[in-house]
């Protein structure tokens, strides 16, 4: 476990900066697909799959794998049913938590912060295991550390949105998205193994 706020923030910022147009365009496509799907009740069932596919593309960008504009839906739709159930349970759990004097909702929001990333990254993992594993990772990293991270990447953007009619979110979402990915890589120890591979390959080529 090597979660550090500075690594999550600066690492995510650098990857977003290097892939800004790709992330922004794919995000825009995901938003458009979500709007079109939301026209019907049946279409709402696939919205979680759309965003799971987009998130999977962010993980591939972080790992240096090829990602093309508009080509990211497959990963989400391969398990659309699982992602729908996962997001539904996630939303219901947090809503119930906030209904119970707010504090339980805040706790669960942070404790389950990496549920979607875990399920996307481990297709064989059950939904219940994804929730349990996220709680374990957050506990190991430090609940208050992750809580502070969530505040840092969301509160300033929300304040800026109030003065820019949400323009700040439109411009900055690639950075926020990749910071979240970097945080996941850190808490799951996958960032270090990936960096080690890069170092090994570099040494092998010398």
Describe the protein in words.
The two termini are 30 Å apart. This protein is mainly α. It has helices at residues 5-18, 20-37, 41-44, 47-62, 73-77, 80-99, 103-111, 115-121, 127-141, 143-164, 167-187, 190-205. The model is unreliable at 192-206 (pLDDT under 50). It is built from 12 helices and no strands. It has one domain (5-200).
Summed up:
The protein is mainly alpha-helical.
Task: Annotate the secondary structure layout.
Layout: H1 5-18, H2 20-37, H3 41-44, H4 47-62, H5 73-77, H6 80-99, H7 103-111, H8 115-121, H9 127-141, H10 143-164, H11 167-187, H12 190-205
Helix pairs in contact: 1-11, 2-4, 2-11, 4-6, 4-8, 4-11, 6-7, 8-9, 10-11
Features:
206 residues; mainly alpha; 81% helix
Calculate Rg over CA atoms. 17 Å
Global mean pLDDT: 90
Q: Helix content range of the residues, please?
A: over 70%
Largest beta sheet, briefly?
Answer: none
The count of DSSP E runs of length 2 or more, i.e. the number of strands, is 0
Instruction: Look at the helices and sheets and give the structural class.
Output: mainly alpha
Number of helical segments with 4 or more residues: 12
């Amino acid at each position: 476990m090597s979660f550090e706020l500075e690594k999550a923030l600066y690492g995510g910022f650098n990857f977003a900066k290097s892939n800004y147009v790709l992330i922004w365009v794919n995000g825009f496509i995901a938003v458009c697909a979500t709007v079109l799907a939301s026209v019907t009740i049946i279409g709402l069932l696939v919205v979680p799959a759309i965003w799971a596919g987009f998130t999977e593309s962010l993980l591939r960008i972080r790992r240096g794998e090829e990602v093309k504009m508009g080509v990211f839906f497959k990963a989400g739709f391969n398990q659309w049913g699982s992602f729908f159930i996962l997001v539904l349970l996630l939303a219901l759990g947090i809503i119930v938590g906030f209904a119970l004097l707010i504090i339980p909702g805040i706790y669960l929001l942070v404790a389950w912060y990496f549920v979607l990333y875990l399920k996307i990254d481990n297709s064989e993992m059950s939904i219940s295991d994804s929730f349990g594993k996220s709680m374990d990772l957050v506990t190991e990293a430090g609940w208050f550390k992750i809580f502070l991270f969530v505040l840092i990447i969301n509160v300033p953007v929300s304040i800026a949105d109030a003065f820019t009619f949400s323009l700040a979110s439109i411009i900055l979402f690639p950075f926020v998205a990749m910071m979240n990915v970097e945080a996941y890589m850190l808490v799951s120890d996958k960032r270090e193994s990936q960096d080690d591979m890069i170092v090994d390959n570099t040494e092998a080529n010398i």
